[in-house]
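Record 1 of the preview.
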Amino acid sequence: MMKIITFKDRSVPVYYVNEQAASVEQLHHKLVEMEFNFDFRKKWKRISKVEVVRDVAIFQYNDGTKLYLEVS
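->
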């Protein structure tokens, strides 16, 4: 499934399996916690998509590299 998540006026698609809907909500809360993390905010500008697998959000950059973030 896919959901659009918005953080700092930028929307990114989030892909997840139907059973992982709770992890997507945890991702939203984690992003709220990261609001004042300026390093993450710089990285967010280059994110093209997010994939949620169990308790991990995999952020994929435009160049294909990935950033892993535990959401639980």
